[in-house]
Every structure is written in C-alpha cells, then in structure tokens.
C-alpha cells in the first residue's frame, strides 16, 4: 500500500465534497459553497491518497479564522490560541487501516509548534463510540458539551494539551518577530501559507 498525506488542491474539492457527503451520519453534510469557505479559512487542509486514490481528508483552523461553526466558536470564546479539527473523513474502503491516527499525528505535528491546544468534538447523539474511544486513547479530554444550533445534536467538546508548545514558544517564538526555523516540516501546510508568513509569531502572542 502506497500512502501519501499532502495538501488538498483546489481542483480536488469536488472529490472532497463527494467523500464528505458519503461519510454517513457522524459527519455533517456540506454544499459546495460551504466547502470552499472552509478551504479558504483552513490553515491546515490535507488529503490522504492510497495507491493513487483519494482515501480521506482533514481540515483544521486557527483561532482567528472567520468561521461560523458553533463548536469552533465555543472554543474561541474560551481559549486564546488553538488548532481546531473541523472534521476527519475516511472513505469506507480505507477504514481500519490506521489513517485516522496518521492524520492526527500529522495535524498534531503542525499544531504543537504553533499553539498550546488541539481541539475538536464528537457527536453524542447518536453516540459515536468509535470516535469517543479513538480520541480518548489519543489524549483528548472532554472540556464541555453543547447542543449544536441548527442541528439539534449534542456534542462532546474535546481538547488536548500540546506539551511541546511551551518549549517551541520559549525557544523560537517568545521575542517579537520570532518565528520557526525555515525547515520543510515546519512550514505552513495550507494554500494560504504564502499570505500569512508571520502566523507562527502571532501564535506566540496568543498563548
């Protein structure tokens, strides 16, 4: 099995939309406009390919995104700096291969050099025990619950403290204008990276 994790490209959004809307009741459906808005705001939007086929995707947003999700806004009201995982979708033929953990390791490596917290939610109505267990074993803890406006389903709001961030902040981001070393694995992983070269420095100010 040949696996690659890479940034989503604009011409692939139709495939991403189809994958999202075929995922089932644990993933909220999107229309094309909503997906493009998410793509515009995401600081991290990556896709998994298995043997050349689209197998899954994960978008995540920083705390300053212009994004109306009630769960994202819940975190923004309570935490000054975080990366919020909006959703993770794995195509049915590729479930059970560990792609969820691959994605979470990748988004964690992105987040832990920028913010102190990784955030997400899981549905409690209907209860998604697979997702609850997955997040619990990955170090997430419940920090709240709410019923989503307009959806009427209760969610558990989860957060994971990123223990590496204080070292990164104090070593590289503490001083005004501080930034991460210019290394490929530390680069922004989004189509907006060229437009936001100082985002790492802003992360230090918000922590």
From TrEMBL:
Pfam families attached to this UniProt entry: Acetyltransf_1
Protein name (record): GNAT family N-acetyltransferase
InterPro entries linked to this entry: Acyl_CoA_acyltransferase, GNAT_dom
Organism whose genome encodes this protein: Dokdonella soli
PROSITE patterns noted in UniProt: GNAT (PS51186)
Lineage: Bacteria, Pseudomonadati, Pseudomonadota, Gammaproteobacteria, Lysobacterales
N-acetyltransferase domain sequence ranges: 3-163
Domain of life: Bacteria
């Amino acid at each position: 099995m040949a696996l690659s994790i890479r940034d989503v490209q604009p011409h692939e959004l139709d495939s991403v939309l189809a994958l999202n809307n075929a995922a089932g009741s644990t993933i909220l459906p999107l229309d094309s406009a909503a997906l493009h808005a998410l793509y515009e705001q995401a600081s991290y939007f990556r896709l998994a390919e298995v043997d050349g086929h689209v197998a899954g995707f994960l978008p995540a947003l920083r705390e300053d995104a212009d994004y109306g999700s009630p769960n994202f806004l819940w975190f923004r009201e309570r935490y000054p700096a975080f990366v919020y995982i909006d959703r993770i979708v794995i195509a049915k033929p590729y479930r059970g291969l560990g792609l969820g953990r691959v994605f979470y390791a990748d988004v964690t490596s992105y987040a832990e050099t920028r913010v102190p917290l990784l955030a997400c939610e899981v549905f409690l109505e209907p209860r998604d025990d697979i997702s609850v267990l997955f997040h619990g074993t990955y170090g997430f803890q419940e920090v709240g619950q709410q019923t989503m406006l307009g959806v009427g389903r209760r969610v558990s709001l989860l957060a994971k403290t990123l223990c590496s961030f204080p070292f990164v902040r104090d070593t590289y981001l503490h001083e005004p204008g501080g930034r991460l070393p210019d290394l490929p694995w530390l680069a922004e992983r989004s189509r907006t990276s060229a437009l936001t070269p100082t985002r790492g420095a802003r992360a230090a100010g918000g922590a």
